[in-house]
Write a structure and sequence with these properties.
Among the domains are: 97 residues; 37 residues; 60 residues, no CATH class. Helix content is 59%, strand content 15%. It is built from 9 helices and 7 strands. α6 crosses α7. The protein is elongated. The chain starts with a helix and ends with a helix. The relative contact order is 0.05.
């Protein structure tokens, strides 16, 4: 009975060890009863690379990293062991290159640059390696901003230290002046607040009246809303009427009338008629003026002394001369000038 228990314990222990071994290989992504195609690459820095990370070819995973360790007798190099698990890619062509790459989200991994030789590497050969330019760029992108921020932080700290030294130097005179300035500012704020309070109290009635007036105005506007709408409607109707009316025709008629007036004025200015001569020739104007003056004087003379011009006798006497010789000459001259004026 005792032997049977020991046998069972041994079997359970063996099964447990087997499960641990199989689980270890499973976690590493390896298969126990399958031929393995293992290769090595050497890097100066692993850049956060760890076992279980993928090995990619053209963006597809074709293998897995199985071990990472220092190179024997040279701690400056890191030996990375990886296994190809894709049945289509089990051997690497000579000329292939293993690149250490990194992604900001997924982390570091190996990327294979496929060679163009017809020969293949054997399992457990060491494949040439390099660091991907993309990884170097990412490292630079991380280090350069960090360097800039560090320099800025140092500069800011230096300025802060100088400011503190200036404040606490010279027996803290600057600090006392700063506190005095703060006190004066607070006092001024208190004075301003008191003045504002006093102004509000003194102008309380006016403020109330202003608010009341505003309320009245808004009430009137509300009550006059219908009238305002009516005015706006009338304005809209008037504008529509103006748009519908023949304004263009009216303007054209006015334009034609102005053109006719311009033609008349042009004829008067540049023609050879009486009106043109009267406007342009000063001699004609003076003659007409003189003629009008003489005619006016003759009419006035007839009004004042009519007997000199109209005489008759009921007894048949011979009438005296109606006009004297001077007046006859003037009248003849007036008639001649009137007939000769064009």
């Amino acid at each position: 009975m005792k032997l049977k228990k020991e046998f069972l314990i041994g079997i359970v222990t063996l099964i447990g060890i087997s499960v641990l071994i199989v689980g270890s290989f499973f976690l590493k992504g390896q298969e126990i009863w399958k031929s393995r195609f293992v290769y090595y690459s050497v890097f100066s820095n692993s850049e956060g690379l760890s076992t279980g990370r993928p090995v990619n070819l053209n963006g597809l995973q074709v293998g897995i990293i199985t071990n990472i360790n220092f190179q024997k007798n040279n701690l400056n190099n890191i030996v990375v062991e990886f296994e190809l698990t894709d049945p289509n890619v089990l051997k690497l062509k000579k000329g292939s290159l293993v690149l250490l790459n990194s992604d900001l989200l997924s982390g570091s991994y190996l990327d294979i640059s496929w060679g163009d030789s017809l020969d293949y590497y054997n399992s457990r050969d060491t494949i040439p390696s390099s660091v991907s330019l993309a990884l170097e760029d990412q490292i630079n992108e991380r280090l350069i901003p960090l360097e800039k921020k560090t320099n800025e932080l140092i500069s800011t700290a230096d300025s802060a230290i100088k400011t503190i030294e200036a404040i606490f130097s010279r027996n803290t005179d600057n600090l006392d002046e700063s506190f005095d300035g703060i006190k004066n500012s607070i006092k001024n704020l208190e004075k301003v607040s008191l003045q504002i309070s006093s102004l509000i109290r003194s102008e309380k009635d006016n403020i109330t009246q202003i608010v009341s007036n505003i309320k009245t105005v808004t009430t009137n506007l509300k009550e006059s809303n219908q009238a305002i709408n009516k005015i706006l409607n009338n304005t809209a109707q008037l504008s529509d009427s103006l748009v519908a009316s023949d304004i263009k025709g009216t303007i054209n008629n006015a334009k034609e009338s102005l053109e006719e007036v311009n033609m008349i004025l042009y004829d008067i200015k540049n023609g050879d008629g009486t009106l043109t001569r009267l406007i342009n020739d000063s001699t004609v104007y003076l003659s007409v003026t003189q003629m009008i003056d003489e005619a006016t004087r003759l009419v006035e003379n007839i009004k004042t002394e009519p007997k000199r011009y109209v005489q008759f006798s009921i007894f048949g006497k011979k009438d005296k001369s109606i006009l004297d010789s001077r007046d006859e000459k003037l009248l003849k001259k007036f008639a001649v000038d009137s007939l000769s004026f064009k």
